[in-house]
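Our platform keeps sequence and structure together, in a single record for each protein. Because each token names a local backbone shape, the row as a whole describes the fold. One such record is reproduced below, unchanged from the form in which we store it:
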Amino acid sequence: MDGIEITTIAERPELAERLYDMDDSWPEFSGNDSLAWLLYPRMVSELPEYVLIATEGESVVARGFSVPFALHAPGRDGVLPARGWDQVVMWAFSDLRRGIEPDTVSAVEISIDTGRQGEGLSGRMLAAMRDNARARGFAEVVAPVRPSGKPAEPDTPIHEYAYRTREDGLPHDPWLRVHVRAGAVIDSIAPLSMTVTGSLDEWRAWTGLPFDTAGPVHVPGALTPVHCDPVQGYAAYVEPNVWVRHSLT
């Protein structure tokens, strides 16, 4: 990986249009979160110094999004929100609009090209995100982690899964393990970190599943079952994440 260069979009704005020039492992439904549709383009245009891209020659091999926000503002008081990903992104842009000084950086996404997984790139991107926040004067990075092994256990409660450890004391989950090895501590659960809703036809298009029976539906890539309501004509997915904290001091 000696030929890999990690930079911010602020440093290399010509790469902004290439952030998605790689195959990733995100399930199709996850890209239909309403806040993601609204705010991802704004991260690139308004907070490019917090958007990371990794290249090797002419190839894009990884990307990372983060946002600065005021975690210790009145009413927030340093408590990481139950609404996780959705809430922290909304706070970041609300603070930006109102001119509130940020005191914390939150990771939003780290994605690795599917052909380059298993090479340690996720840890390297996380280190770059931490270094970028530290260089900008922040003392902490937080992350609403999407546990990578959780889709294999959609019915396991997130409170049970998140705190499961191996014999060496490290987290059972691979992505949580990367964070803890980098110095993070698990803070809390975000039980409704991201919400994706859609008509039954939309869910059928996203997943290839029939969505014709009321109740929970196991969808590949989902951390928990999707709730299907054929009578009302919709299905809803509420994704839990795990909040971790990285001290930079």
Summary: The first strand starts at residue 4 and ends at 8.
